[in-house]
Predict the structure.
Amino acid sequence: MKNFGKISLSALTVAALASAALAASHGGELPASVKARQAHMSLNGFNIGVLAGMARGKVDYDAEAASAAAKNLAALAGMDQSRYWEPGTDSDSLAGTRALPAIWANPEDVASKAAALADATAALAGTAGDGLEALQAGLGPVGQACGACHKAYQLPKD
Ligand code: HEC
């Protein structure tokens, strides 16, 4: 009985070590700063998805919904995001993030790309409720602002 207890305990230990190793190989628990920036980006993605669906005619244009999603994007772009980009949380240092080390080498360019998004989303927030054509015209520059930063600073998906 004693012996059995010992064996199952060491079996448990092995299982715990194995799952710890698995977690480590997947990057383990991501730092809160990484989770926060990914959550912020998910909110960007969700809101732009609402607008893109209307702009492409997949969903009927709805002035109120368009305006609300555009205002959400502008509010997100206006948030202070400086603490998201914690040193040591780049894609070379951690698994589970696609934030390239170049972000930390080019803070001024990153800030200017974030400012370009803030400008484009502020403009769209003012016009997205004015009809489908206004939405389509204003969404282009927003998509370009997202894309310019991803092209420079987001590790491509493999
Ligand atoms: C200033 C640079 C910058 C701008 C502007 C930007 N992004 Fe990102 N985005 C990133 C980086 C860097 C990542 C990778 C973050 C990570 O994995 O830690 C990312 C990741 C994402 C992701 C994946 C999130 C996840 O769960 O891993 C989505 C979706 C996204 N962005 C959407 C958008 C949209 C939509 C816009 C425009 C409205 C936008 N982003 C604007 C830099 C930017």
The pocket of heme C is lined by residues 34, 37-38, 41-42, 44-45, 48, 73, 97-99, 110, 113-114, 117, 142, 145-146, 149-150, 153-154 (CB under 6 Å). The CA atoms of residues 98 and 157 lie 8 Å apart. Residues 1-25 have pLDDT under 50 and may be disordered.
